[in-house]
Amino acid sequence: MDIGMIGLGRMGGNMAVRLSRGGHTVTAYDQNSTASQVCADAGIATVQSLDELVDAIKAPRAIWAMVPSGAATEDIILNLATVMSEGDTVVDGSNSNFNDTIRRAEMLEQKGIQFLDVGTSGGIAGLDVGYSLMVGGKRHAYDHLKPIFETLAPSAETGYGHVGPSGAGHFVKMIHNGIEYGMMQAYAEGFELMSAKTEFDIDLAAVAEIWRYGSVVRSWLLDLTAIALSNDSSFSEIEPYVEDSGEGRWTVEESINLAVPIPVITAALQARFRSRQQSPFAPKLLAALRNHFGGHAVRETL
What does the alpha-carbon distance between residue 190 and residue 201 come to, in Å, rounded to a whole number? Predict the structure, then answer.
């Protein structure tokens, strides 16, 4: 099957390579010439513009956009809407907000262009082990591109599926990432607590290795935890600063809209906010209040 790929960063480029290895004809485009060259070096045909990309693919075309969510995705989809034809399919593999996805699908449908939103998980390891693909959109569009999903997934039977109408794929991926926040936070807190029990001198990397096999908390995230701890269990060269890329916030916002409590995911998101504050205000106020009502000592800044 022929497919165009837009966005050749580490994940998009690896997906293009996996598709090519799976026997599909891939034509790739990225405004970054260095990213394009990586794909060219892997034997993948590259072009210099969206117009060239559309011309290079046989109709009905399928073009997969793997660019950052937000403005970049918006621009790509608006541009594709002007150069693609009725019966073509646009695939959005970014972590787009599902509300934007629904709007974009409606806009493309008016032009007769099909749209699939594919929540994609697996990171850079997906090249070797496959990606988890959560697909939203019209069922017939999904069925048409199923060979693509089978190639990108861990196997032809596992790790991918149609989860609902337009927006559902990105909604499911949003929840997936919210769960990821909670899992990561639980691992971080548990290992910090073990580290604090200094009289036991616990080998954190060894514990992670033990838990990787047979334990009910084993996971790929735990595998990555074990690798990180084996490199530097004190993380002496890493600042305690954790970004959030949007999906956690959207998950919490949706829980408010639906009145569904998600305290673990919410707390994990709040912990990331706290990690980015160099001199948080709230603890200072707490110390001041204790001083005023009970005469408790405060520590002054140097």
Answer: 15
Of 58, 106, 173, 189, which is the active-site residue? 173
- The identity of residue 261, as a single letter, is P
Q: Tell me which DSSP letter residue 48 carries.
A: S
Tokens of 78: 């608006």
**Catalytic annotation on 173?**
yes
Point out the catalytic residue in the list 109, 138, 180, 254: 180
Measured between alpha carbons, how far is 45 from 241 in angstroms, rounded to an integer?
39
**Phi then psi dihedrals of residue 160, to 5 deg:** -150, 160
Distance CA 78, CA 59 (A): 19
pLDDT digits (tens, 9 = 90+) for 26-64: 999 999 989 999 999 999 999 999 999 999 999 999 999
Task: Give ∠ CA 89-91-97 in degrees, rounded to 5.
Answer: 135
Rounded Cα distance between 50 and 34, Å, is: 17
Within 8 A by CB and 6+ apart from 150, the residues are 156, 160
Percent of the chain with pLDDT over 70: 100
| Closest residue by Cα to residue 258 from 176, 145, 171 | 171
Active site residue 192: no
Exposed (0-12), middle (13-18) or buried (19+): which is 60, by Cβ within 10 Å?
middle
Task: State the Cα–Cα distance between residues 249 and 235, nearest whole angstrom.
Answer: 27
Give the pLDDT confidence of 204-220 residue by residue, as tens digits.
Answer: 999 999 999 999 999 99
The rounded distance, in Å, linking the Cα atoms of 95 and 244 is 12
Residue type, 93: G
Helix, strand, or coil here: 146? helix
